[in-house]
Write a structure and sequence with these properties.
2 domains, 6-stranded parallel beta sheet, 43% helix, alpha/beta, Rossmann fold, 17 helices
């Protein structure tokens, strides 16, 4: 049986797993069986870096990591990955900052990753690379002679040619992506955008199943939405809703209902628009004053970048304005915190919340939406308000879908959710829960790895440009 090798920018080491639970670590838990290898950056950086690969083992899984120099961290991670690729893939061209030196630093770190991983590989390993930090990794591994099956999954959106080709050297990154054997996307629209870029830039056409030939090799682009363990998260929510943190939150609310938002502090999450919507809600629907408290948890991230510093100052200003305008001596309409909260604690908070407002301007998937649905009490479920520009909206159509740029529409959806009958809430929730319970994290891994393990992925003839 082939060994699975996971490669990601950051490796959640065994001693960090409890603190960092969530995201990729949770999604890949079912794929990581004893014997697997997880490789990536250690999270450490220094002036001189380290050529040494650090290896540790836990529960039969090997974790191999490398350090970065301060200069590599700046060019690879801060400047190009998060200063150029992140805004590009989230359709924010006005925030894209490109320097050729940063791009060369990005490729240099991918070369370093490939060189450090190469000695650890076995001939029959299946290699699964994750996310936009490591787009060139297959190219670098192939240059070293690696002939293993290599797959890539993009956890962000992908954008159409009119946006993607605004990035200098975009054609090189498309060539890098086409060097993988399998490329995975969350939604049909992301895959379609990628294949349109291939057709326009590299004159490569795919069949109706996303299969195409590149440099004499068959490649397959698949749609594989990431999920969660809905049953496990539901039990976690039921347990922690009775725990001390949830009890303290419930007591602090008094007679108010709870609305909740949970995001990283990132401009893609639509937080300024959401906060403006909270203000519009209390202005347009004054009957809900004192009867609803909005809790926004927004853990800080990427604080080195000016765009994030400006965002934090803007959010502080909006929160102060709303609370100054609508607060009473015994009620604060908007609670805002910028430190992380443990996943199990969040599960209990989700179960208490009558509304979840998940309104990113653009998002690859957004697992908070799925976790909120899984956490609900089936007898008295809350209502999910979801951006139509989140990847989750493609499958979670029973949520109240909104335009995240329209604060009035979000406010109206909040009112509709609070006014919704129990019967409608139960019907919407049950349909959503069934979908979340079907498209699990286990299924996500199984679907991708089944494609990666296949060698019969040649496209049908004739190839078609039209992809759904």
């Amino acid at each position: 049986m082939s060994r699975l090798v996971i490669v990601s920018n950051r490796v959640p080491l065994p001693n960090e797993r409890a603190a960092r639970a969530g995201g990729l670590a949770v999604a890949l838990a079912d794929a990581l069986i004893p014997g697997s290898l997880w490789f990536g950056w250690s999270g450490r950086r220094s002036a001189r870096g380290s050529a040494v690969t650090h290896v540790q083992r836990s529960e039969g899984i090997t974790y191999a990591t490398v350090d970065l120099t301060d200069a590599d961290y700046q060019s690879f991670y801060v400047n190009f990955s998060n200063g150029a690729l992140w805004p590009l893939l989230h359709s924010r061209l006005g925030l894209l900052e490109f320097q050729s030196s940063d791009y060369e630093g990005y490729r240099h770190v991918n070369q370093q990753f490939a060189a450090a991983l190469f000695p650890l590989l076995r001939p029959d390993d299946m290699i699964w690379v994750h996310d936009y930090h490591l787009i060139p990794l297959a190219t670098e591994l192939r240059a070293l002679g690696v002939r293993n099956r290599i797959g890539f999954f993009l956890h962000t959106p992908f954008v159409p040619p009119s946006t993607f080709l605004a990035l200098p050297r975009a054609n090189e990154l498309l060539t890098d992506l086409a060097t993988y054997d399998v490329i995975g996307f969350h939604t049909r629209s992301y895959r379609r955008a990628f294949l349109e870029c291939l057709a326009e830039t590299l004159d490569v056409s795919a069949d109706k199943d996303g299969r195409f030939m590149f440099n004499g090799r068959p490649v397959c682009a698949i749609v594989d939405p990431i999920g969660i363990d809905a049953t496990g998260f539901a039990q976690l929510a039921d347990d922690t809703a009775r725990g001390p943190e949830a009890r303290m939150l419930r007591e602090s609310l008094g007679r108010s209902n709870l609305a909740i938002g949970v995001d990283r502090l990132d401009y893609s999450k639509g937080l300024a628009n959401r906060f403006e919507a909270v203000g519009r809600f209390f202005h347009s629907y004054p009957q809900h004053r004192r009867h609803l408290t909005f809790l926004q948890i927004a853990a800080r991230s990427r604080e080195e970048q000016g765009a994030y510093q400006r965002l934090r100052r803007e959010l502080d200003r909006i929160v102060g304005d709303i609370n100054g305008r609508y607060s009473e001596f015994d009620w604060t309409p908007l609670r805002y915190m910028t430190r992380a909260v443990k996943r199990d604690t969040l599960a209990g908070f989700f179960r208490l919340a009558r509304l979840a407002v998940v309104t990113p301007l653009r998002d690859g998937m957004n697992l908070v939406a799925k976790e909120y649905v899984a956490a609900q009490d089936p007898q008295d479920p809350g209502v999910l308000i979801l951006s139509r520009f989140a990847g989750a909206a493609e499958e979670m159509t029973e949520a109240l879908l909104v335009n995240p740029y329209d604060s009035d529409e979000i406010a109206a959806a909040m009112h509709a959710g609070l006014s919704m009958s129990l019967g409608e809430r139960q019907l919407r929730w049950q349909t959503l829960f069934d979908k979340v319970a079907e498209n699990t994290a286990e299924r996500f891994c199984s679907v991708f790895l089944s494609h990666l393990g296949r060698t019969d992925l040649r496209p049908e003839r004739p190839t078609l440009r039209a992809i759904s």
